[in-house]
Input
Amino acid sequence: MKKARDQSGTFLAEGLKFIGEALDLGQTPRQLLVGKDARPHPLLDRARAETLAKGGEVIVVTREILEKVSRKDNPQTVLAVFDQTYTALDALDPGRSPCWVALEQVRDPGNLGTIIRTADAAGCGGVILIDDCVDPFSVEAVRATMGSIFAVSVSRATRAEFLAWRARWPGSVVGTRLDAAHDYRAAPYRHPTLILMGNEQAGLTDDLAAACDLTVKIPMRGRADSLNLAIATGIMVYAATEGA
Output
């Protein structure tokens, strides 16, 4: 539950693949929940050893408990509780990557998780959440990242904090708007490029659009009048990083 996640500063990850990604990136579970019917696996042995070495708990649990914790009828046999990690805006190094992503008031956890995964795949520096975005550490969002939640820096900012920080951005800031005049393929992406995407329903607000060096559109060739936010962000990220 979000209230409990906020109070504890932790979140849940499911399955050995997720846990292995975390271990490879130097993050160790606070708690490792292992089902009684979990099959032996070298990665499970590693997870147990590293969790205990860092003072964490390894707890053997029943299938019923795994179902309760994961809220799934067919849960993974291994779950883990990790610390949430946010990166302060002032700690970000824009020159570390040719592309970054900022999201305004994203509401769908699946979209957010997929965007984090896409940012990881494209080699983006991080994802910045502006104003009241969905929790990136919700179970649904974490699942959609497929483990990239451990690899991509996530930052949070109010609108005012973001705009003040954006004023120091050394590259270009490119947003998407349906009323934009420029095609996304013709945009002058000056690295590091910050891709700014709006809410699923309303799109980018006027004040954040005004903070962009350029707004672009992705043309719709069929009957659909818009793209899913995660898909649109993926298109923009790869356009901005082409040749980088």
